[in-house]
Amino acid sequence: MSRLIECVPNFSEGRDLSVIERITERIESVDGVRLLDVDPGQATHRTVVTFVGPPEQVLEAAVRAVTAACELIDMSRHNGEHPRFGATDVCPLVPVSGVTMEETAEYARELGRRLGEELGVTVFCYEAAATREERRNLATVRAGEYEGLAERLGDPDWRPDFGPAEFHPRWGATAVGARDFLVAYNVNLNTTSTRRANAIAFDVREKGRILREPDPLTGEIVRDESGEQVWSPGSLEHVKAIGWFIEEYGVAQISMNLTNISKTALHTAFDEVCRKADARGVRVTGSELVGLIPRTAMLDAGRHFLRKQRRSLGVSDEELIKIAVRSLGLDELAPFEPREKVIEYLLEADAPRRGIDESVRGFTEQTASESPAPGGGAVSAAVGALGAALGTMVANLSAHRRGWDERWEEFSDWAEKGKALHEELLRLVDADTDAFNAILAAGRMARGSEDERRARDEAVEAATRGAIDVPLRVMEVALESMELSGAMARDGQETSASDAGVGALCARTAVRGAYLNVRINAAQLADERTAGEYLSRGKELEARARELECEALEAVEARL
Question: Which of 33, 68, 377, 518 could bond 53 through an S-S bridge, CB–CB 3.0 to 4.6 Å?
């Protein structure tokens, strides 16, 4: 797995796009770093930039970007709706792949050290990179904002983690952190009242509001035995929120940071704001994502809203995301383009197109060419994927059939299973080609010396096992899809019984075809015991597929 981290610096400039462009040019000047998103805000006078790459390159790009911000942004002249205390206000690092949170925190501290030593920037570390427990919360670190920074730096308890403990009026201070994926999410209201928006924000945010009795708005502040104010927590964990008015849109919003979307999901936050707004006579009209979002969050939202409609969840990812966009009203203020907002899509955009990304015609013509790959193994996986897709189609149609409303969840479960199966089989199309290429690469290894010959033989043996593992997995997954096809032939809507039968036939072909690959590659293994185990497992799967094919076709015949 590639070692990747994401960096999401927030710069205190959202109106002069030439300044932002000069900053992002510094980021793009680092080889291996990909600029994913630039999201300026006029009212907030703030731009959220997102880029990703290997840790060392990301740190270099961050240093160059902060250098540019120090040169181009003058905090003494800054004003905006969003809390801030520096030209580069915050600069969090986020683990994406192959890097732990602990490692990311170390990279964040290294970034803070470089900013302090190389640029003379005052740096506070927060979240997982915090050097003290009381500095974990960004709101605590940034308390008093830019206007209160000079006084804070005079307090020995707030000596910065890196850089000078002196107020620099031009660039202020920077908070450098390591955190999980944070989703910046705004919910739009049909009011212009900041006070009402704030009331709703206090209802939902984890911190809540100061407790007052007997009246929650005008009553006396409740204090504990130490005289400290008592807070009444809000309804959503891992959520920070404030209410504000956005002049460019003419609406009030609940502006939220969802700091742990595995605990409080995007759709959970949306639904809860809807409930709290309704209780206060305010209506939610839509919402807005600032920056990027993981694909899983959008897929989970799509499934959530389909479940509320009692509709099948086993639809394509594209359809799930469309449902999420419509249900959350993400396109109310501006068009929402998933290819520009979902982080995985952006990372995949420049990846070379492979067999599974081609059209049916393209894949067929590529198979027919003089190239030995894709070959029978890849085609077996592709045929299996089509079989699983047919079973999924019948399950989705059955879930929506008039008069079968009480059975929607039964068929939805089958459709979700079918979707997972055909997606895995599609991945195995390319995996089979990769396994074949690995054998070729191993065979080209040097074999002059005895050590080289031994290394080559070991590599060939390992690659051959890989070339058996893939078709064996094709057999297993295609066999699972036969259970889906059989169930749909027996219990799905009658008019689609033939489709379920074709799905079973495709799956049977996939199993038999993949078994041929298992057999021909097992014959090349030097380890005869391992070869025998592969062949035994393949024979068992092939026999079971024959049984399931008969059962499915009998069910089809009974309904024709």
Answer: 33
